[in-house]
Amino acid sequence: MQNKSTRALYLIPYGAWILLFVIAPIALVVYYSLFDIHGDFTFANYGAFFSSVYLELTLSSFWYAFLITLFSLLIAYPTAYFLTKTRHKQLWLLLIIIPSWINLLLKTYAFIGIFGQYGPINAFFAAIGIGSTQLLFTDFSFIFVSVYIFIPFMILPIFNAIDRLNPALIDASRDLGASPWTTFRRVILPLTMNGVKSGIQVTFIPALSLFMITRLIAGNKVITLGTAIEQQFLVTQNWGMGSTIAVFLILFMFVIMLFTGQKEKGGASIGKTK
């Protein structure tokens, strides 16, 4: 009885944190979404979200988030795999993670200089005879900078998953005559899928709500849900519509977390590799 009381006592700070910093902000966003720009109660904001403009914006946001996540995964997985094979893997991992400690705004302005008209890349293009090229305010620059920012967050969970993988399973697969590709497809990838799912979560979800990079790197040529929320709150002062977009963004995040949730199945995953 005493253990239950002690456990309930320990849950109070956790419950208070969840209530104040998770439930209350979401409830406040939902509350504001029920008012129009004049402060009148309405459900029109939800109807407006399903108009062609916002549906196209949502599809565009998902498309760019998908591309950012895909390129991050294609770079992060082999990087994480080879990191686990290096002698000083923790040191190399630290060197990859350190750039994520730098302020996002500073990194964004650094890329403005790198991709700028008089930046080092255009200087190199001029030296080899290609000439000056417009790199800023393009889809390429937006995706490139976004992938650079999210790669450390994709590498870390995949690295941890591969590093915990039992080498005996890989050796057994090779001893049974499996090719390197078959070993990767039937043994390594299934057993590290939880790391991949975690990496997708921490990349895809924030990529949906990017707004600073879209302004500074893409020059507002790329509009995401995050950009739309910023414009509704700071430009048009329509807090109701901005909150409505935020409500749907939260719903999208929950759906993504549901589909990429980790499920521990014990030895089931090993059994599938046979």
TrEMBL record:
<feature type="transmembrane region" description="Helical">
    <location>
        <begin position="12"/>
        <end position="34"/>
    </location>
</feature>
<keyword id="KW-0472">Membrane</keyword>
<feature type="domain" description="ABC transmembrane type-1">
    <location>
        <begin position="58"/>
        <end position="260"/>
    </location>
</feature>
<feature type="transmembrane region" description="Helical">
    <location>
        <begin position="91"/>
        <end position="112"/>
    </location>
</feature>
<dbReference type="GO" id="GO:0005886">
    <property type="term" value="C:plasma membrane"/>
</dbReference>
<keyword id="KW-0813">Transport</keyword>
<feature type="transmembrane region" description="Helical">
    <location>
        <begin position="62"/>
        <end position="84"/>
    </location>
</feature>
<protein>
    <submittedName>
        <fullName>Spermidine/putrescine transport system permease protein PotB</fullName>
    </submittedName>
</protein>
<comment type="similarity">
    <text>Belongs to the binding-protein-dependent transport system permease family. CysTW subfamily.</text>
</comment>
<feature type="transmembrane region" description="Helical">
    <location>
        <begin position="142"/>
        <end position="162"/>
    </location>
</feature>
<keyword id="KW-1133">Transmembrane helix</keyword>
<dbReference type="InterPro" id="IPR000515">
    <property type="entry name" value="MetI-like"/>
</dbReference>
<keyword id="KW-0812">Transmembrane</keyword>
<dbReference type="InterPro" id="IPR035906">
    <property type="entry name" value="MetI-like_sf"/>
</dbReference>
<keyword id="KW-1003">Cell membrane</keyword>
<feature type="transmembrane region" description="Helical">
    <location>
        <begin position="239"/>
        <end position="259"/>
    </location>
</feature>
<feature type="transmembrane region" description="Helical">
    <location>
        <begin position="118"/>
        <end position="137"/>
    </location>
</feature>
<dbReference type="Pfam" id="PF00528">
    <property type="entry name" value="BPD_transp_1"/>
</dbReference>
<dbReference type="GO" id="GO:0055085">
    <property type="term" value="P:transmembrane transport"/>
</dbReference>
<feature type="transmembrane region" description="Helical">
    <location>
        <begin position="199"/>
        <end position="218"/>
    </location>
</feature>
